[in-house]
Each structure stands twice: as C-alpha cells, then as structure tokens.
TrEMBL record:
GO terms for molecular function: exodeoxyribonuclease VII activity; nucleic acid binding. Belongs to the XseA family. The keyword Endoplasmic reticulum does not apply. It comes from Thiohalomonas denitrificans. The lineage of its organism: Bacteria, Pseudomonadati, Pseudomonadota, Gammaproteobacteria, Thiohalomonadales. One of its GO terms (biological process) is DNA catabolic process. It comes from the Bacteria. It catalyses: Exonucleolytic cleavage in either 5'- to 3'- or 3'- to 5'-direction to yield nucleoside 5'-phosphates. This is Exodeoxyribonuclease 7 large subunit. HAMAP family: Exonuc_7_L. PANTHER family: EXODEOXYRIBONUCLEASE 7 LARGE SUBUNIT. It is found in: Cytoplasm.
Amino acid sequence: MAYQPQSQFPPDREVFTVSRLNREVRSLLELSLPLIWLEGELSNLARPGSGHLYFSLKDENAQVRCAMFRTRNMHLRFRPENGTHVLVRARVGLYEARGEYQLIIEHMEEAGDGALRRQFEALKARLAQEGLFDASAKRPLPDLPRQIGIVTSPTGAAVRDILTVLRRRFPAIPVIIYPVPVQGAGAGREIARMLARAGERNECDVLIVTRGGGSLEDLWAFNDEVLARAIRNSPIPVVSAVGHEIDFTIADFAADLRAPTPSAAAEVVSPDRIEWLERVSTRKVRLRRCMDSRLQQSGQRLHWLEKRLKHPGRRLMEIAQRLDETEQRMRRAQRGHLRHLAARLDQTRAHLARVAPVHRLQRLEAHRCELERRLHVATEHRRERAAQRLAAAARALNSVSPLSTLSRGYAIVSREDHTVVHRTTDVRTGDRIIARLHEGRLVCRVEETYDD
C-alpha cells in the first residue's frame, strides 16, 4: 500500500490567501472609519502622467501615504508642493498590491485658510440654526432714501467707488460716512458699535457696510458674531458689500441685502436720476390730462345743474303739495288699519266664545264620571273572578298536599342527611332516622327491620 502524506493543516481550519487577507483588511478599514480631517505637511509628492497625485502627509512624529485622484485634484485652488502645510478630508483605505494602508484624499486646502474656513462654516451654521439669516426677517430698502449712511474706512477705495456711483445716479441724496477700521483685531466690534450709534442717531434710511476685496484673513472682521447680531438688531435696513463678488462673509448673510461689490451696493440703494425724471415727467403729463378731464366733467355737471335750478318759492310749493298728499295717504292708511284691527278683534272674540274652557270642562267632567263608574264595575267583576280562582286553587292544592296525608296519622321518614326512606333497605340497624308528623318531628333509632 502506497504512503499518502497527510496535510499539515487540520481539515476544519480556514486558510487565507494574501490577496484575500488584504481585501478583508481593506473592507474593515473603509467600513470602520468615516471621512476624517487631517492636517500635515506634504512630502514625496509625485505627479505621474495619469493626472493623479501621490504623496506623504507627515507631522513631527509620523507620516502616511496618500493618493488624490485626478477627478478630485482638478478642483484644487492652489498648486501643491513639497513642504506645503495642508488640511485634507480623506477616507482610510488599503493598497492591496503592496499591503500598505493609505489615505484616499477627497478634498485639500491650505491649512491657514482651511482653519479660518472651518471657523466660518461653524459660525454660519450656528447662526443659521438660530434663525439669524431667515428671509422673513429681511427688511425692504426704501425706494427714495432721504439720507444714506456708509460704515467703512474713510480712506479706502470702497467709499470712493460708492460716492462716484451715488453722484452719477442721484446726487441730491446726502451721504453720511461713519468711519471705522475694516481690518485687524477688534475691527468687527468697532463696526458693530458704529452700527449701534448710527441706529441711535437715526439720520439715515439705509446703511451700507462695506470694504474692498482681500484674502479671507483680510475680510475676517466681517465674520464676527457680534457684528452679525448688530446688523440684525439695527433699526435701519443694512446692505452688506464686502470684497468681490466671489467673497462671502457672515455679515452678508445677516444683512437685509447682500451686494456683490461696493459699487453694486450704491446702485441698489440709490434710484436712477434719469429714470426718476422720466417717471416725474410721465406723471406730470398724466396729471395734466386728468385735471383737464376733471375740469371738463365739472363744467358739464355745472351746466346741467344750472338747467335744473328752480326758484325756491316754486320748490316750496311743490314740497307743500307733496306734504298734503302724504298726510292724506297717511290718514287713509290709518283708517284702513283700524278697520282691519276691528275685524280681527271680532274674529278673535267669536273664536274665544267657541273654544271657551267651560264647555270643555263640562264634557271632561262627564267623561270622568263615566270612566269612574266603568272602573268600579270592572274592579268588582275582576275581584269576584279572582276570588273564585283562588278558592279552586286552594282546593286543588289541599288535595295533593302531604300535610293532608300527615293529618290522617301518616309520617314522612328520612335519614339525618334528609334523604327520604322509601324501603327498609335504605337504612341499617342502629341508624338514626327522623319522622315528620302532622305536628312536630320524632328522632328514632332503628332496632329491627322487617320486609312485609
């Protein structure tokens, strides 16, 4: 018999291949860890012809391999280089071919702006949840403001742009400039205090909070929570015009209206002088036509009234004649009404005589006496029949009553358990029995039994 070598593994042991192990580990990593944010420095950056990016993300003590595919890195706003400090959003995976775990990068931004951006998004979400940005709280801007206020730096380019547009569109509207710093530490709170002061002075119908463009850090004063609440609490409608069209700040969301640029804010708050002059001219023509039409109608009505105008004496005679006619009609109506009431009174009296309660009471009394007599007769008849039935029932009951039998000297014998004794076999010698007589009972003991 040939020798068969035995397997070195027991038959019930599951054996993984390396590929399967890496695949299982990859599934565990991807399912266990959600998208995460990491901050670190780029190194070993490679850009192959495929358009993908491969690099390491490191800090002082460790590093991890990363891959960012072309469909993701084509949206980057900067060019990554070795040594760049970045903030990434990634998911954890495993490169099965080498068994190395790596990060698949979904989003990347420079770390400085990224921190500010996260702070901006967190504040924006919290204030939005409070309802600070609700559209229902936005106030409409005046069509023709009596005075416009500008809260900004008096030396910046933004105020010059706004004044240029206002002079071109409607130079008759006065402007007040509320000077504030628009950049640096504490600038947001200074702007908020100036907004509160402008509201207390109540000199303007609309306020423009503005500054020129810049980086996210330059515009950070307009992402202050205190400033956002001051804008919302201002008694005067506020227009926010901060930076360029692509720049958004918390002040933009809190304001009653967001303008993409300072010049656009000036366009929004000021009416167009030429358009208003055309409107005034059009309304002037319409007013003149309306006045001519009204004068013509009034003249025609006056002419018609003049024709209808009569001498007062003649008018008084006509009124006196109408008064006499009215008096005669009133008297005829009164006499007719009185005759009608008299006829109704006679009808009512005749009806009352017919339905007088005396006759009805007499008929009811006679009917009651008849019913009483009939009730008496029926009661007597019913009583006699009941007495006859009772006597017959008593006779029948007496004929079958056991008491009648007992009165002739018989007795009912029963045991102590009240079972009636019918024959001698129902008892034994020495048993106690009870004999019920016509009057009373006897308690006896069985001495002997006889079968007749």
